[in-house]
Amino acid sequence: MLILFPKLSSERVKGLVEDGTSDQISPLLGDVWIFALAIVVNNARHVGAVIVLPFLVVPFSVRAYFGYKVAMIGLTLSSSGSDLWGAMLPHLLTVVVEIEAYVILGIGAYVLGRS
């Protein structure tokens, strides 16, 4: 997507600044424990309300949401210049491991649903 729309990442970051999201995060960056607690609470809330509940109603319904969310996070974190590609290189392993985990989880849910 970034190849087709090169300004999309910078516009996404500018949107986060304009709507006040970056102002909410800035105070948390001063204390690592409060920042970690905020991440844990946000992830727990997000997993329960957005992933588990819809999945219980309609199995595999979360795939479309995951696709959208991955695209938005990727656009927000993608480097807009060619000099920043090395900064995201360590995250490549994390992305591969997470995708593998989702595939294994999906296969497990399929096998469980078949039996």
Secondary-structure blueprint:
Layout: H1 8-18, H2 21-25, H3 32-57, H4 62-77, H5 85-88, H6 91-114
Helix pairs in contact: 1-4
Describe this structure in words.
The chain is an all-alpha fold. The mean pLDDT is 75. The N and C termini lie far apart (39 Å). Helix content is 75%, strand content 0%. Helix 1 (8-18) crosses helix 4 (62-77). The chain is built from six helices and no strands.
Order of H and E elements: HHHHHH
Fraction of residues in H or I helices? over 70%
Poorly predicted ranges: none
Shape: globular
CA distance, first residue to last residue: 39 Å
Write down the Rg.
17 Å
Strand content: under 5%
User: What is the mean pLDDT?
Assistant: 75
SSE-based structural type: mainly alpha
Key descriptive features of the protein:
115 residues
Short note summarizing the structure:
The chain is built from 6 helices and no strands. The chain has helices at 8-18, 21-25, 32-57, 62-77, 85-88, 91-114.
